[in-house]
Design a protein that fits this description.
With 69 residues, the protein is an all-alpha fold. It has two helices and no strands.
Amino acid sequence: MAYVKVDDNEPLEKSIKRFKRMVEKEGIIREWKKREYFEKPSTILNRKKKAAIRKQMKKVRKLHVSKSY
């Protein structure tokens, strides 16, 4: 569950941006359009690697299911 503590002197827009980032990072909601914040190249690389691993595992799972019949 994503939650953000807002300080008294913090602008509301900044806290909303942090919340959106946290929600997307946890995978609750994925935003497919242009990113509204800077993402480090290493973070992009890690996200793409994880997606590739998920895709590969899905192929392997599908292959094992089709061979078992």
